[in-house]
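#lab-general

N.A. 3:47 PM
ok so I finally got the sequence cleaned up, no stray characters, all 200 residues accounted for. can someone with queue access submit it? mine expired

B.Y. 3:52 PM
send it over

N.A. 3:53 PM
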Amino acid sequence: MNLQARVISILTKPQVEWPTIAAEHGTVAGICSGYVMILAAIPAIATFIGTTVFGVTLPLIGTYRVGIVQGFATLVLTYVLSVVAVYVAAFVVQKLAPTFQSDPNLVQAYKLVAYAMTPSWVAGVLYIIPQLGLLVMLAGLYGIYLFYLGVTPVMKTPQDKVIPYMITAAVVVIVVSVLMGVVGGALTGAFFGMPRVGTL
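B.Y. 4:20 PM
back already:
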C-alpha cells in the first residue's frame, strides 16, 4: 500500500485498516524509512516555518521569532528525536506485551506506535501558524484512540487487557515524547540561547 492510501485509511477507517496492517510482513527499517521518516518531517518543517517566519506572539510581551540557524538546528534535532521516539516507545510497548498477555513482537509494536502517530504528524502542518498548536494536541487524542483500536489486531491482546495495556502504553508514549521534547529544547537552547524578541 502506498503512503497516501495508508494515511487516509488509518485516519478514516481504522477498524478495517488495523487487521491489514497486522497481517503485513514488514520490518522496522522498512516502516521507518517508508512511513515514519516521511510523516515525522511534517511537524518539524512546519514548526521551522512557523517559528522563523511568523514567530509566536504573546500578549504584553511581543513576538518571539527564532533565527534561521537556530530554527534549522531545532528542525533537524526535533526530527531526529521524533524518529527515535517512535522506536523507543515501540521497544517499551514490546517489553510490556507479556504483562498483558500480548505478542512481544518488536515489528508489531513498531507498527502500532508508528501508525497511531499518524494524526499528530498530519496535523503537525498546523504548526506553520504556532497559535494553532493546540489543535495538534487534539489530533494526538485521536491517535490514542487509534492505538486502542489497534492493540488487539496488531498485538493479539485479549479484550479484557486492552484498556490497561493501552493506558500504560499511552503514558509511556507521552512520557517519551515529552522527554524527547525537553532534550531537544535543552540542546538547542544550550547551543543558541533564547529566541530573540521583536515585533512583526
